[in-house]
Amino acid sequence: MEKKINIRNVVCQRCIMTVEDILRRMDIPFKVVKLGEAVLSRELEPKERKELDKEFEKVGFEILQDRNEKLINNIKSLIIDNVYSEEASSEKLSSVLTSRLNYDYSHITHVFTESEGQSIQKFYNAVRIERVKELLDYDDWSIAMIADNLGYSTPAYLSTSFKSATGHTPSEYRKQSGKNRKSLDSI
Questions:
Q1: CA-to-CA separations, 26 to 1, 29, 93, 108, in angstroms, rounded
Q2: Which residue ranges in the chain fall short of pLDDT 50?
Q3: Residue 76: which of 87, 64, 88, 86 has the closest Cα?
């Protein structure tokens, strides 16, 4: 019987690989590891669960128990997935969240804001700004391409939002040395 576990702070491909390594090392069979979750091939024994908790804690991960914690984790994972998707999405964030989580948007925002101390929109904007920084660092895409891919209405709106968040225009940021990117789990 499959068992899905939700894991806090699994926010990137490197995190997924780390979880997979831990599960393999502990001989815990799994089907798939995704952002914020792992689908195990079987239920964990209590002793295994305790050991897995310890291994996850060493690398900054945590198995979530509370239903609201799971919801928060799923919200963050969906937002990060959405922002880091290779394809630009025209679907509104509220539609993405309500369709995938099967909750009213008002419930989703209430739980998120109460738990995280910031709105979903603020978190979403922060993740997008970090993605913009990453794309600027790669220097492969123009500002217009970045704006289009991340759902900004215009390159000017992207530039205004970026300057408001960082104090620099995207062009100034691109020229800067010693750039200041945050990890997603610190947002």
A1: 19, 9, 37, 35
A2: none
A3: 64
Alpha-helical (H) ranges within 26-169 are 46-58, 67-84, 93-101, 105-116, 120-138, 143-149, 155-166
β-strand pairing of 30-34 with 62-63: unpaired
The predicted structure's pLDDT at residue 89: 72
Two tokens at 76? Answer: 């963050």
Q: What is the pLDDT of residue 42?
A: 93
Q: What is the Rg, in whole angstroms, of the alpha carbon atoms belonging to the chain? A: 18
Q: Which long-range contacts (CB under 8 A, 24 or more apart) does 173-179 make?
A: 173/133, 173/136, 174/136, 174/139, 179/133, 179/137
- Note whether 43 and 1 are within 8 A (CB): yes
What is the pLDDT, as a whole number, of residue 164? 96
Q: What are the pLDDT digits (tens) for 97-114?
A: 999 999 999 999 999 999
Residue 15's H or E segment, with its range, is helix 13-25
Q: What are the residues facing 40 on neighbouring strands? A: 3, 30
How many C-beta atoms surround the C-beta of residue 30 within 10 A? 17
Q: What is the DSSP letter of 117?
A: S
> pTM value?
0.74
